[in-house]
User: What shape does this take?
Amino acid sequence: MTMAMGFKLIMEASKRYMKLKGYKLIPQIMQGLVFKDGEIQEKAA
Assistant: This one.
């Protein structure tokens, strides 16, 4: 693969890239916290 071809592939991929909103909340979601309307919900005991 040539440099130009690699550059074109990277440029095309960057057009579809979108940063996740709320990426800082991913660890909390993985811990099992539930969000509703952007607020953390308490678990029913």
Notes: The chain has a mean pLDDT of 82. The first helix runs from residue 3 to 16. The chain has one domain: 3-35. The helical segments are 3-16, 26-30.
